Amino acid sequence: MFSPQPNRSRQMEVHGIFKASPDQERNIRVVLTNGVADDSDYDDLDLDTESDESEDNPDLMLDPPRFTPELQTESDQVSYRFRFPGPGEFQCTVTGLVFVLTQEAELQYETVEWDKSLLQPVGKTPAGPLFHFKCTVDTVSQIHLPHCETKDDLLSGGLCVAQITDDGLSFLEPLEITDTHVIVQVPHLSACGVVWDVVKRFLKPVSSQVLLFLQPPNSKTQKQNLNVLLLPINTPLDEVIAQQKDCTYIRVPSKCYLCKDQSYTVDCPVALKIQPKKATFDLMFGSNYHPTFEICLPINTAEVTIKVQDESNGEVWEHEVNLTGSGPAETLSFPAEQILKSVRTQFVERASEAVLHKLLDKLLDPGVITDGEMEKITATANRAEKARELIDTVRKKGSEASSALIENLCEVDHCLSKELKLVTKQLGPRRRRGRRKHGDTCQIL
């Protein structure tokens, strides 16, 4: 997944207008979250005005304000939505895309399948996901699309952007290519994606990532599988997670360099079996992200060392992976209100307006919240304040109510529950009430 550039300053939320005093303008950073510009949390955040970069440097570039879009998942397909508060340059924290807008607008986007039959006759091949964009008004002037090119090969001149419309295929020449993005002017929104020249890109390494997903243990066989995915670095992580529904994502340093059409192997000393024995790395951008390797481990394995090696047994990636924190032990049970408290901040920051309304409906039915409480929360205009009011209201009611919120969050927003490290798991005995019974629920990892 594309990783936004590190930021030396603390983060600050500003409502619509982005400005700073003269002594702060080199450090201010605007953060927009969950589908709309949010001004509720200024008081909880500080601005760090110190900088180790020169104020007098005319070439100093500020990172664009970052936003977290509302994510919607349907049949493993993830789509993104965000309402921008006004003109400016904004970077998506999920996909790495950067948008330059001329006015306030709502933007929707998602990845779609490449039609390689359009690219092959003109000697092009996908170099990133193909994004389809929709906007309420014609307000997007530039798009910065993440690429997976290495710094050494940026000068080869093989990158451009394909634009696919009802009229067919055309190519947009980059205004600029940075270490991470291809910047293009867009005459109108459609489907756009980064492509390579096939000849210029032959046998060169690309910036890639190793993603790990732990499958649930099999108590009958006393085994557990660890999925290893080799993907280009500009593959959106949330879309991969959405397809690994029953698995736990293990966050590890993932970056490596891989070559298209080269074979790779995985070494893991404690593995019972690794399948396949070797696999070819392909630049697959689309909606299907299948495991490259499957490592079969003894159940309850605490730690493993995993190596990815090339055809000459050269090491391209290695990491000691701790599996003990990847899921709850079979015999442990945590108070649900404690789990809610531990994820409260992230829930307030990331729960979308649509998810909050779904949760309210589901919690009203069994009597977890009252009509009065629902009306009060619904009447709250600010999204973050609405999320804060909901989680605090339920959390103060104890374990049963908290369990109901966790269970329903896992049901209505699978991506967010994954990010909060919640998985379907029984929380343990509790009293039941209301019009429905809560079966399996979620437990923090």
From TrEMBL:
Entry keyword Protease: no
Start and end residues of each stretch annotated as Disordered: 1-20, 34-71
Keywords in alphabetical order: Cytoplasm, Immunity, Inflammatory response, Innate immunity
GO cellular component: cytosol
SUPFAM superfamilies given in the database record: DEATH domain
Domain FIIND, chain residue ranges per copy: 61-336
Coiled coil, from the record: none
Domain CARD: start-end pairs: 332-424
Keyword Cytoplasm applies: yes
InterPro entries, alphabetized: CARD, DEATH-like_dom_sf, FIIND_dom, NLRP_Inflammasome
Gene3D superfamilies per record: Death Domain, Fas
Biased composition (Acidic residues): 38-58
GO BP term, example: regulation of apoptotic process
Location of this chain's protein in the cell: Cytoplasm, Cytosol
Protein's name in the database: Caspase recruitment domain-containing protein 8
Protein source organism: Channa striata
